[in-house]
Each structure stands twice: as structure tokens, then as C-alpha cells.
Specification:
about 160 residues, alpha+beta, Pnp Oxidase, Chain A, seven-stranded antiparallel β-sheet, 4 helices, 7 strands
């Protein structure tokens, strides 16, 4: 009887630790290069007309996309040009998040703990890509006259209600 009680107690402790780990992962990640799941935080319902604040106030954006039943979130560079919000993606083709965004443009972005519902659109127009690239390089403190990298994609994010 004592052996069964120890096993039951150990299972309860493991379940509590696993639950705490899951809650911590959901609330803290994406972390560095570790993807996350749901982005938690207060959600802004009003559309954002000018995203220029991301260039000075936001170091990294966290994007949540849907892939099947579960959300997938990661950290990535975001930048604004002419008040429009762009997301940066190097060697993007085939990445989990970009593939999910192409299949379902509804996403959520977290900036400084605040979540914004958005729709994503991959940009393929060379002039808009160049403008977004220059905004990215400027935000990162790099020369803005360097040509775009091969395989660099950008998505424009627009507010949705």
C-alpha cells in the first residue's frame, strides 16, 4: 500500500510540475530562438493607423500564427515605413511561421507585452520590399544603402478588428 501511495504522489508532483512548465512556456515564450504558443497580454481592439512607434519603442515583435489547431509564435524583427508595419524574414521560404502565414493570414503580434490582431500579406513588389529593407536596416542601425539580401521576405501587417 505504501508503494502505491508513493507512486501516486510522484505522479501528482510530476503533473503539477508539467502544468507549471506549460503555463510558464505559454506566458514567457517565444524566448530567444525557442518558439512559443499563445501570446498573452492585453489585446488592442482599435485599429492602428500608424505603426511608426515600432522603430523607436519596440526591439522585437512576437508573431503568433495558426498552424492546425495550435498557435505557433516566434520573435522577429519588425519595422515601420510610412506608418506601415513590416515583418522581416531571412531565408524565409519553407519556415513554419511564414508557411502558416501564407495559408492563413490572420495573426497576432505582441509588442512590449501588448497584443495586436493583424492580417498578414507577403510583399513581393520590389519597390515596397526595398522600402521595408531600408526601414529594417535603419532600425538596426545599419547603412540603408546596402542591397536587400537574397531570399529575404517581408510581410505587411495590417490591423484587424
Amino acid at each position: 500500500m505504501m508503494k502505491g501511495g508513493l507512486v501516486s504522489g510522484a505522479l501528482v508532483v510530476l503533473a503539477v510540475l508539467a502544468g507549471a512548465g506549460l503555463i510558464g512556456w505559454i506566458s514567457l515564450c517565444p524566448c530567444e530562438r525557442t518558439p512559443g504558443s499563445y501570446l498573452v497580454g492585453p489585446e488592442v481592439q482599435e485599429p492602428v493607423a500608424d505603426w511608426s512607434f515600432v522603430n523607436s519603442d519596440v526591439k522585437l515583435c512576437q508573431i503568433e500564427v495558426r498552424r492546425g489547431l495550435l498557435p505557433h509564435s516566434i520573435n522577429l524583427n519588425c519595422m515601420a515605413s510610412n506608418g506601415e508595419l513590416f515583418l522581416s524574414c531571412a531565408r524565409c521560404e519553407g519556415k513554419l511561421w511564414s508557411t502558416a502565414a501564407l495559408n492563413n493570414p490572420r495573426a497576432r503580434i505582441r509588442m512590449n507585452g501588448v497584443v495586436y490582431p493583424v492580417s498578414l500579406e507577403r510583399i513581393e513588389d520590389p519597390a515596397t520590399l526595398d522600402r521595408a529593407w531600408r526601414a529594417r536596416e535603419g532600425k538596426l542601425g545599419r547603412p540603408t544603402d546596402v542591397p536587400r539580401q537574397e531570399g529575404w521576405w517581408t510581410f505587411q501587417a495590417r490591423s484587424r478588428s
